[in-house]
Structure formats: C-alpha cells, structure tokens
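Worked Example 4.2. Read the sequence first, then its structure tokens.
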Amino acid sequence: MINFNQAHLTGKELEYIAQTAVENHKLCGNGEFTKKCQHFFETRYGFKKCLLTTSGTDALEMCAMLCNIQPGDEVIIPSYTFVSTALAFVREGAKIVFADSMQRNPNLDAESLESLITPRTKVIVPVHYAGIACDMDKIMAIAEKHNLLVVEDAAHSLDSYYQSPITNHQSPLGSIGHLAAFSFHETKNITAGGEGGLLVINDEQFIHRAEILWEKGTNRAEFFRGAVNKYGWVDKGSSFLPAEINAAFLWAQLENVDDIQAKRIQIWNRYYEAMKPLAEKGYFTMPDVPEYATNNGHMFYMVFENLEKRTAFMNYLKEQGIGAVFHYLSLHKSEYFKDKHDGRELPQSDRYTDCLVRLPLFYDLTDEDQTYIIDKIKAYYGV
C-alpha cells in the first residue's frame, strides 16, 4: 500500500532530542531549541514576532483571543476549511459567517467578501488552501476600508509566497495579515514530531499580550527577560507552549527545509506534467496556481465533475493499493453548525467537498511509487 502521507525524518531528530533532554536538562519548553526555531522564522521570513505552539489549532486560538472577540462579533471564514479555523473563534463567542470558495481553487472568494460584512464584522480569516495564496491585496484593502483584523490561516503555507500585482513585492504567506497561524502536524511539509504550530504576530500591538497568553496568562516571559522582578497571573491564557522535545524535533526539520521543499515541489511538478493531458481531455481539473501565488509542494489534488466520478476513481486507486483521500466537508453543513447557518448556498465549497481528491505526496515517496501511481491513473482512463 502506498500511503497518502508519511512523515519525513532528517536523521537529526533523535540527536537534538537527546541534547535537550540529556545535555541541557530542559524538557518543558521555551529553551534553546524553541528560541532557535522562533528566530529562524523571524529572520528567514521577516515575521515580526513568532511563538511556537503545541498545534496549529492552538495558534489559531491565540489569534482569536488576541482579536479580543466579544459575543456576537462576526468572523468571516471559508466554509471549505478544517474545523479548527472556525472553532478557535467560536470558543470566544464569535458568530461565524461562512464565505464560499472560488471556482478556480478552494480559497476564499474575495470578490464576494465585502457583501458579507456587517457592522458586527471584526475579523476576516483567509485560508491559503494547499499553500496557494488567497488574493491578499483585495482582502487587505477590504479589511482596511472596514477597519477589520485579518488572521491568515497558513496551516498549509510554509515557504509559500504572495506576489502583489499592485506593488510587485513578494511576501511570505503569514506575513501579510495582522496575525497568522501555521501547523507542523505530521501531514504538513515539516513537523514538530507529529503535532506543533506557530503563532505569527505582524502587528506590534499584539506582541506583549501574546506572550502572556502563551505563558498561561502570566507575565513569566517578562520575568525571565528581567523586565519584571516577579511574575503572576495577569490575563487569561492557556498552556500553548510546546515541550522542548518538540522544538528539538522541529529544528532538525528546519535545518533541512530547502531540501524538503525542493523534493516536494519536484514530486508535485511531476504529477502536474503527467496529469496535464488527462485534464485537457476533461477527466478532471488540476490545482490552479494564480499569477500572484507560488507553489510550496504541500498538496496535489484533482477535482472531478461529481461525487460519483470521484468515488469511482478513489475506489479504483484503493484497489490498486494507492492511498488517495478526499479532504474537508463544508462546515456550514456540519452537524454542529447547520442550524446556525444563515441559509445561503455555498456551491463551490460543496463542489470541493464532493469532488476533490488528494494524491500521495511526501518527501520519501519514491520515483518508482510515483511512476506506479501515474501509470495506474493513466490506465484508468485507457491511456
């Protein structure tokens, strides 16, 4: 069986874990490896302030807390996303307003965004699906016009960029909104040992409070910097800080990020070139990368005409020992939220729910296995 995903090990993970546990006697977090990882993101991508978290979900929950959501405040997110995107804001009492996806790809449709804004709107949460940028010029302009905060859900988006057609400036995803959240779950390009995340703060007004929330509502971080002579409970917060072992694992991955990215993009490109003739015949559509976006090799997906065709295709691949999978289910139709939705149809979100399938893509996918996958797909279509 060719699995859909397999976490890659660089070979240094256990060495660094042993270093933090045996040599440094530091396990609880915010040690040498936490600082090295945070510094890496701040220097490589120009993020103003970074804080490692135990998961991408926790990073999103910190974003929601920093936005100071009050009960009844409205937050706009795409319906086609993981539940964490919505849940972080629901926990703070927000009313979720779901946006539809674009026809060309699953990202939030910025063209219809302004029609969703009301006097209660407080935050827009664009999700960069598959590491492909949303139309951030348009989203940021709308946010500025209505005095809204923007939180980038960049869970898929390590090492991916937005090329502004207006300024021609290339910005890393996660650096454009006021806040951003990344995930280092084992299904992502790099992992912190199975789970992990990163809060990115691009607006200075949030930095001080973010450190307090991160340290369980205390000013402990200031204490260790010598800024205060004692620390105590000063705000709400939680145990968002990951163990130093996770940071050590992540550091081993970050040291090899260029190699990991190059290999994943190579695999993605090979799929694209092999599938292109079939897509041109109308069997399915392939990932769309707008001119303002780059591709970070996170995910290769295909979109079929309907649920029946996708189901038949996936059943065939399963019979061939290929672990292809679908992805999100529209949140506005979820068991939890369907009675809270305003009744608007979101046809593109539902289309991706029914018609999108993801092919295996991971660093250690061999050329032979990828050839096998491609050949079986061609055989399915009689090529």
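Now turn to a second chain, presented in exactly the same format:
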Amino acid sequence: MDERVEKQSLSKIKPGTKVRLAVYGRHNTCGYFDSEVIGISEVDRPYLSSKNFDNIILLKLFRELGNDKVVNFESDEIVCELMIKESKVVYKDVFVRRIDLPIAGDVHAIITHEKEHPTVNRRQFFRLWIGLNGTANTVDHLSANVIVRDVSVGGVGFICSPKFMVSVGDKVTVSFVDETEDRQFFIIMPCTVVRVDQWRGNTQIVGCTINQDIPNVNRYIMLKQQERQRRFKKPLRVSVYKDGGSSEKKVI
C-alpha cells in the first residue's frame, strides 16, 4: 500500500515543476497528460481568491498528444490524479478546470477537493483503478457490497457505506469479478485495514494492505496495465477544444 508522507498544499509546488495528470475513465480506461506549473502573478491572485480557488496551481494547457488540441476534463465520468514527476508524489482526486486570467492567460488549473491541505502519498506499487462492484467480509461475518476503487500488489481501496463498521487493524476479505470478452478474473484478497476516511456523500473509503502475495492479483494487474498501455494513444472519450481555443467541443 502507499506510504503516507507529509501533507503539503498544492500552492507550495514551485513554478517550472513537471507534472503528469492520470485520468481514469469508464471501462478501466486510463490516459496520461504532461504539463508544467506556472507561477501565479499578483494581478491574477485576487481573481483566484474571489472564486475560492485558494489551494490551486496553474499549468500550461494539457494538450492531446499528436494533434495539439486542448483537452477538457470537466466530466463526472472521470477521476483525475496529479503526480509530481520528479518526486513521484501523487495528489488524489483533483479537479482540472480551464480558466482565462489577465496575466497567465489561457491555462489549466488544478484544484483539490479538500478545503485545507490534500493528502499526499508516495506510491510504492503501480495502482490499478478498478471501479467495479465487489464484496467485503470481516472475520465476524459482517458483509457489505462495496465499490473496489483501486488495487496494487500491496493493497486495495474500496468505497462503502459507513454502516459497514470497520476500524484500522481489522481483518477483511475483499473480492470482485472482472469479466472481459476473452477472460474472467475472480479476485479474492485477505487484507488488513490501514485507514478509514469519510468519502463523498454518505460513504467512506477504506484502505487495506493485502496480507499475502497473491499471484492472481499480480497477473491481473500486469495484464490490465499492458492493455492500458496498448490503448495509450486514445484512452478516453473526453472533450477537446477545437484549434484556436474556441469554446466549442467535440468528442474523440
């Protein structure tokens, strides 16, 4: 599972820092976009404050690889994570918005969900976004329907109702099925809970370490990663702006 490191505001990231945006969409699609942090001028800062954009960084526009079109990330069907390329530190579940400022001009802004400091994690393993229905069971025979959020060779995260009362240190078994046209994966993972946090709405997110090496999990992650790499050039159905910065969009 990820190693928790210090909490750090987005606003502390220095101009010129290279970043990578991971965008997770429907049907286990994933895409990556690179950019660079831009400084916020004193002229632009009051505008951002008036919009309650306090925990924010500005980036050069993310563009579609190969044709230089600007990508629009304003969709309820995607989840975005920002990685600082040099340190590998990841900011989870960020908003990406395109804004026009007096000095910075036409840029993308990264904004966190948290009102204060975001949680920052350093990834030890490749984490696979899942987004599939699954089941979690405790040793006391409590059971819950969950959404398996992500899996790595070292851990799993899932979203569930707070009525599924688990605490750090509890033993749980998480399982889910992933079916494709040519194969079916039935994943069972004996785990230990390492964090329980409130999530959006009336839900909670539970993070676990996997208690033993599970070859089926390793193979599943490897094959899914290979599939995503093959689809890298056109990974998502997201909107892109036409050349010239027009507000008109089309779907790729």
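Notes for the reader: The chain is about 10% helix and 45% strand. The radius of gyration is 19 Å.
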